[in-house]
User: Fold this.
Amino acid sequence: MLQLDGRSLRIADVLAVADRRVPVSLSPEARSRMDATRRVVQSAVDRGEPVYGINTGFGKLSEVTIATPQLAALQRNLVRSHAAGVGDALPEREVRAMMLLRANVLATGYAGARASVVERLLAMLNAGVWPVVPEQGSVGASGDLAPLAHLALALIGEGPARLGEREGPAVELLQAVGLEPVVLEAKEGLALINGTQAHTAVASLAAAELTTLWRTAHVATAMSLEALLGTPDAFDARIQDARGQVGQSESAALLRTLLSNSEIRESHRYGDPRVQDAYALRCVPQVHGPALDTLRFARGIIERELNAATDNPLVLDTGELLSGGNFHGQAVGMVSDFLAIICANLAVISERRTDRVVHPDFNQGLPPFLAAQPGVESGHMMSQVTAAALASECKALAHPASVDSIPTDGNKEDVVPMAMGAATRLRRSVRNLRHVLAIELLIAAEGLEYRRPLRSSAAVEQAHAIVRQYVARADGDRPPGPDITRLAGAIASGVFDDLTSSVVL
Assistant:
């Protein structure tokens, strides 16, 4: 059981709940904080003074004061009117992550919501009921208003939801698991929809997988280098020390570990006329290293956002209510763009390594396109084409979304970060990279077969064996698509992570 305290949630916890369905509860400490700030909200209602989000309209309508008998209708209508999302529904794992994150934000106490609201949201999550949340409609400015409104809509028993394979009215699915809809009180509608939790949920899951892909990229590099009879000399620690970049040094050290004690390397150590390998092999630490530095930075931003109070106004246990802009999604939007750049760079250099393994002019005597009967068979000609298509799309997706802005809400929200767009594009970039690396791995594994009876390092041979668990050696031409897809799924599950555990992320 994961206990939410509003302060200590980590990306690993998000994965546990989103994918492994670890149950969640509210900590006593968080309940106490929520009770204290809820009393502040109730006191403001009792005084009848205009306070944004409690007894006023929203956004451009914030100058309209709402009478006490209409406060419940105000919150209900806020949720209804803001559920304006369109497009494909977010995947279940992303919605589960979003539910977790929103519950954790409320658990900080700064939103002034009742503890019972969080407990009902967690009961939905634990029971497997999840709202249908359209992907598009958020600019990430006053938070992810539209996606979070769709979440809140299901919580109050309106709109569609899902339970397993069943989709239907939220109220019916709540009843099916023994839950009643929440009746919102003052400020609670705003507390549910005002924040960054939709794009942060998507980004946190993408960042977690990208961490795995960064590790896998080193395994793929080592296999390709061996298939191409390359040299690990460029990974010498003294070269990295001369530059002093941390990620570069760790990347090179990982490659040295993966490639140590290789028969293939020893077979061409002397008498090889080549002086240097191509950049796609020689400069891997200089490309993968900055990716590591940036990934660590981005994960830090995202993990802080998991526990950030992003509502407005913030309710303090001192009795104060402070209006500000913590709902603005620039932080995670910007690092989502950084992570998409990582995807593009890792995909591009991987595709170049793949091309060298299949290219008859560069692959050191391997059959053209690794075809057993070149001409009669095409081998992996099209696998490289697929990698090129995916790498090229990653380049397009790396154009930053967070530099864009279109004023919204009657120009009240005049600078917006487009964070949700950045996060969903990152998700697609990660998926592309996953498949690019799968292509490199299966082609490099095939290349190693042609170097037998020589063996590579223990780590590369282990990686080769893992690939063979999912993709059999080619016996003539066959459709490579299913092999790529199957191996990509294995990569996402972290099958190569143990080979790279020396690097801590």
Remarks:
- The two ends are 24 Å apart (CA to CA).
